[in-house]
């Protein structure tokens, strides 16, 4: 290999907002066959909005107050959306005690002596909570591809909040460019199959793995590798760190967390998903020059 051609490739990438961490990363990105993309924060803006709120057996404002009180402890996009929306319904929140984030599921806390849970259906089922009252609201959320945050107090379902996620401008173009490079695309998300399917359909992504817990994201990468694929993983969060490190090539968005950046081989500084096909194109071109 000629070091000069490598330097040129890495330098050219840098001017486009693509930081390639050395020769191995460049080598790997020239041979990728499949690109796995995280949903929340990678393909979507990470800013969500609450579309509907359905209380079960409590007042509307009390559902908002309890849900937003728990979410004071969380940094998740869902938590931010619930707190923002709650401001239109309540002026003050309850103090938060014993908050625990449950990655891939939701969160729990004690509020004025009660145990609150806010999270997905798996979380509530794990706690043996009866979801029958939410059947119609769940079906509706499913149909719209909304993400649901269910709320329970002391083992009793008290509400459902349905949230929507916004696709980043340029995401569809980036996916089209990846397909033009003969790459297979896979959407990987901890979110529900309905929410995953909606985003994948809008972007033309071929395969979806939804409801994947953070610890299992790397397993999806390994399965693809076992099937003979050379896998690039694109992510932004703590959730994605192990999958980024497991992939043949890890690409992290710079808006992401420190740990995702450390686990990556390539850091995407430009706020435009077209950096993904650009990175692969530059690497392929550089490798052709070297060989
Ligand atoms: P992703 O980044 O792919 O959305 P996460 O692992 O961050 O995956 O979250 C997976 C799911 O866990 C979310 O879609 C949501 O259902 C649930 N969840 C996680 N944190 C929270 C929270 N603070 N409040 C409500 N639900 C949450
Ligand atoms: Mg994410």
CATH second-level architecture of the largest domain? 3-Layer(aba) Sandwich
The CATH class name of the largest domain reads: Alpha Beta
Q: What's the alpha carbon Rg, rounded to whole Å?
A: 21 Å
Number of domains: 2
Major pleated sheet: 7 strands, mixed
Shape: elongated
CATH superfamily of the largest domain: HAD superfamily/HAD-like
CATH-defined fold name of the largest domain: Rossmann fold
User: For the largest beta sheet, what order do the strands appear in spatially?
Assistant: 1-13-12-11-2-9-10
Question: Would you list the SSEs in sequence order as H and E?
Answer: HEHEHEHHEEEHHEEHEHEHEHEHEH
Count of DSSP-assigned helices = 13
Strand content: 25-35%
* Percent in helix: 40-55%
Keywords: ATP-binding, Cell membrane, Hydrolase, Membrane, Metal-binding, Nucleotide-binding, Translocase, Transmembrane, Transmembrane helix
Subcellular location: Cell membrane
GO molecular function, one term: P-type divalent copper transporter activity
GO biological process, one term: copper ion homeostasis
Could you name the key traits of this structure?
291 residues, alpha/beta, Rossmann fold, Calcium-transporting ATPase, cytoplasmic domain N, 2 domains, 6-stranded antiparallel sheet, 13 helices, elongated, binds adenosine-5'-diphosphate, binds magnesium ion
Task: Describe how the helices and strands are arranged.
Layout lengths: L2 H13 L2 E3 L2 H7 L4 E5 H5 E12 L4 H12 L5 H10 L10 E6 L3 E6 L2 E6 L1 H6 L8 H10 L2 E7 L2 E12 L3 H10 L3 E5 L4 H11 L3 E3 L7 H10 L4 E5 L5 H6 L2 E5 L4 H6 L2 E3 L6 H16 L1
Parallel strand pairs: 2-9, 2-11, 9-10, 11-12, 12-13
Antiparallel strand pairs: 1-13, 3-8, 4-5, 5-6, 6-7, 7-8
Bound molecules: adenosine-5'-diphosphate and magnesium ion.
Adenosine-5'-diphosphate (ADP) binds next to α3, α5, β5, β6 and β7.
GO molecular function: ATP binding; ATP hydrolysis activity; copper ion binding; P-type divalent copper transporter activity
Protein name: Lead, cadmium, zinc and mercury transporting ATPase Copper-translocating P-type ATPase
Main location: membrane
